[in-house]
Amino acid sequence: MGKKIKKGKEGPVKEYVSRTKALKKLQVNLKDFRRLCILKGIYPREPPQKLRKQHKTYYHNKDIAFLKNESILDTFRQRQAHLKKIRKALTRGDKLKAGRLRRNQPKDKLDHLVKERYPTFIDALNDLDDPLCLVSLFASFPTHKELHIPNTLIRSCQKLINQFFLYVSAHNCLRKVFLSIKGIYYQAVVQGATITWIMPYPIQASLPLDVDYKIMMTFLEFYQVLMKFVNFKLLGQEIEITDFSEEVMKLKSLAQNNQIEIDEAFKEDPTIQQMDQQQQETKKYSELFKGLTFFLFPEVPKSSLEFVILSFGGEVMWENDNKNSQLTDPKITHVITERTVQKNKKREYIQPQWVYDSINQLKLLSVADYAPESTLPPHLSPFEQLNLEEVQSESDEEDGQQKEHKPYQNNKKQKEKQAKQQEKETKKLAETMLSRKNKRLYDMIKRKEDEEQQKKNKLQEKKKMIQSKQQ
Predict the structure, then answer these.
(1) Which of 324, 335, 337, 338 is the most exposed place for a label (fewest CB within 10 A)?
(2) Pick from 293, 294, 287, 332: nearest CA to 313
(3) Residue 87 pLDDT greater than 80, yes or no
(4) Is the torsion defined by CA of 272, 274, 277, 283 positive or negative?
(5) Helix, strand, coil distribution of the chain in percent, nearest 5
(6) Domain boundary assignment for the chain
(7) Superfamily (CATH H level) for 281-402
(8) Longest dimension (CA), the chain
């Protein structure tokens, strides 16, 4: 008879460790453990059925062993020792020493973590969606003493976003834009990597107090370092942006000067052919607003429109900008406003939606539909599978049916069809608004519903078969 193995000593149960045991192994408190896990990209694991009944948080043993050798643990310990020194100085009444110690607190160096988590530059670009969302969110925040959100942090976030926007607009990387209730969705293709992020509207936000900002700040700390690396790699230097449009023009002229002519002998090479295709594609996007100059009125979102128009080859002006532009400038071709103004026959007067819809359809739309007085057409999401052409073809079919039949015959059917179509569109819009977590849950529920429907259909078929046999 073999030796009896004690419960929890071997097998799949041994591969997992609870959070309390992990804290004892690493000799850190819960606050530092959370911070370490966020910075290293380690998350709780779903344990086997035996452990799931205990209602505890579990981690993989390999992950905890991986955290043991982390250099940040030393800085955590140094910081704890430093805090003891500050407390001692305060109890003795030596405020000068306490202040000096506070200024010289040991800080975490996260450069090695970026290199560790993203071995290649394309890996960093592929994972840039969440960093851009969080950095742009903090860039729109007001300063808050109670929540420890200083002005320096907000400014650094704004600087990082502006630097990334500078590269995107100078190299015509922007592809799609969508104005939603949450904010403005952008999609850009940077060196072959598709990046999608959301930017909040430039409105002063009131910060809710029930959100854990400390965890968000930990994520932000790592994302800022990652963004600095990415921006430096893209731009080649750290640029202080004073005038966005001027910097974009400088970068565009530099890119044109640095263009390399390829010899005819190498033109048949597949990699060079792929590069040519990419250049032709970017040329399409860069020439959409070529030769057009837009004047922005105060009520329109300046920063978004400036970024978008410059990305597609246009020029932007507004009153009292760095060039001291005026509405009387003869270069102006389009005026973007949301109110009725005195019109000039040589210019086109449009609402901001015209710019975004033209970008999504990659053609200059008719200006008559977007005049300041007129009601705007629906702003459809470019991220949806449903094409604008399909919507137009459906509407054309409906118009044809109306012409063929008499109005009193198909009035009811038409109303039902419109109601169904509207329901479909609202459902699809709601799906796009879902977060990643909720989207996964929604997909799971949908899958289960489909499976149940398939089972029902099979049972009905069997029933029909049995009934036909009995007859």
Answers:
(1) 324
(2) 287
(3) yes
(4) negative
(5) 55, 10, 35
(6) 12-70, 111-254, 281-402, 438-471
(7) BRCT domain (3.40.50.10190)
(8) 101
